[in-house]
Write a structure and sequence with these properties.
single chain; about 180 residues; 9 helices; globular
């Protein structure tokens, strides 16, 4: 059995299955890509355009600073350097405060940098992005619902869904941070 540094390998013998490697080990090791990956926009143009459409619709009516904070937090959680670089750059261009950008990853310990509404959005972003850890807790959802009307909350959720999709596209196709291809 051959296993690269960032793969989990499964070996089956008889009726027993043994798994080596863990998600934690894989995440801690650098990704190397021997061959170029496909260009998703060219390979699946209708799907790519659909994600662009969802992204545009999700942003509609939301504060641009909040949009970038949500996208930065999800990209940090997903380990997507390509999207993290893109959205921190976009936030800077839009006038976002450098100190706030540094605090997004530790927002719970740096609450004074963020409004209650932003904190509720960051909390919801974490719950939805890490949904595999037990879903979206009622208190997290209720906190967000207290700060956003129904339409805004729908847009915040759509934005979280969209950035998670973008993160998965960038990671799956080995996008390189700093090479903004928009």
């Amino acid at each position: 059995m051959v296993m690269t540094n960032n793969e989990n390998a499964t070996q089956t013998t008889g009726t027993a299955t043994q798994t080596t490697g863990t998600a934690t080990q894989a995440a801690a090791q650098p990704h190397t890509h021997a061959a170029p990956r496909l260009n998703f926009a060219k390979a699946a143009p209708k799907a790519f355009k659909a994600v662009i459409g969802l992204d545009a619709a999700a942003r509609d009516g939301l504060d641009p600073a909040l949009v970038e904070l949500i996208q930065i937090r999800a990209s940090l959680l997903n380990g997507c350097a390509y999207c993290l670089h893109m959205h921190t750059s976009d936030a800077r261009k839009a006038g976002e405060d450098e100190a706030r950008l540094h605090m997004v990853g530790v927002w719970r310990e740096a609450r004074n940098f963020f409004t209650e509404k932003e904190q509720a959005a960051l909390d919801l972003t974490e719950a939805v992005t890490l949904v595999h850890r037990g879903g979206v807790p009622d208190d997290v959802y209720a906190r967000a619902a207290a700060h956003f009307d129904e339409t805004e909350l729908g847009h915040v959720l759509a934005l979280i869904f969209t950035i998670n999709t973008w993160n998965r596209i960038a990671l799956s196709t080995a996008k390189i941070a700093g090479e903004d291809e928009r």
